[in-house]
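OP here, attaching both records as promised.
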Amino acid sequence: TEAELLAFEWKYLIQLPQGYRAFLKTIGNGGAGPYYGLEELESGIFETLDDKDPKYTIDPSVEFPHTEMWNMDKYDHEKEETDEEKEMIYFDRKWMSGVLRISNFGCGVSVNIVVKGKEYGNIWIDDRGNDGGIYPDPYFDRTERTDFLTWYELWLDRSLSKATEKENIKRDA
C-alpha cells in the first residue's frame, strides 16, 4: 500500500525509483521475475539474499559509490594488504551502499536497484562472490543502463517468447 511504501522510504531515508515503486504498489511485493524471482522489498537491505541475517545489512540511504564497473584490481591500494585484508576490503558493505537487492541470480550474485546516487533507478549486478566485481546490468544483451521496468519487461518478453516457441514446437510435432 501507499502507507507501507512511505513507511519503508522513511525508515531507510530513501525514495524508491518511480517504476519500481509503481510495480510494488500495482503488481506486488516480490514473486515471479528474472533468475530466482523478485525479492520482497523488506529483503532488499540484506548483504546476501542467501542468508538474511539482520546483523548483515547494507545502507540504502548512503550514496551508491559507482558510476562504472568496479573490481578489486581497479582499487587503489595505499599499502600492501594480506589476502585476508584484501578480502575484507573487497566485501566491505560500503561498495553496495545506496541499493536494494531485488533478485537473486544464484551463486552469490545479486541484482540491485540503485536508490541513492548518480546511478539512481538503474539496475546493477553484485558479482563479488565470483570475483566479478560490481557492474551495470549487461543481461538481456543491453549495453545501455537499464531501469527496473525495462529490465522486468525484457524478462517478460523473453519468457513469453520462449513459451510461445515451446508451444509452436509442440503443435508442429
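Record two, same layout:
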Amino acid sequence: MKGEIFNLLENFIVDRFGVETFERIFEQVHEKLVTKEPFIGPGTYPDQDFLQIVSATVSDLGIPLSTAVFEFGRYCFAPLAAKLPHHTAKFLHPKPLILSIHDVIHVEVKKLYEFAEPPDFIYEDIAPDKL
C-alpha cells in the first residue's frame, strides 16, 4: 500500500480525534508493525501495517469497523481526487468515476508499479445511477 494512504489515515485520526489519540494508537502498534521508519507518501508498505493501525484505532475509540472505513473513505476522496483533477472533473456522478478507478486507474497503477496491489472493487451494478 502506498505511503500516501498511511499519511491520510494519520491525518484523518488527528483531524477527527486529536494528535494525542493518534500518538496513543501508534504507540500501541509500533512494535507490531513491519515498517519501523516513517511512512512516506511515494513509498510502498505492507498492507498488514495499515490493518494493524486501523484495528488499534477502532478498538481504542470503540467504533465499528464499518463506520471507520466509511468515514475514512469520505475523508480520503477529496485529497485523492485533487491529485487527478483532469480525470475526476469530467464525471458528473460518482458511479462512472468509481468504475474508472477500478477499470482504468488501478490497471495503469499495476503497469507503472511492478509490485502494486491496488484494491479490487466488489460491487453489484443494480441501476444506471447505483452500484
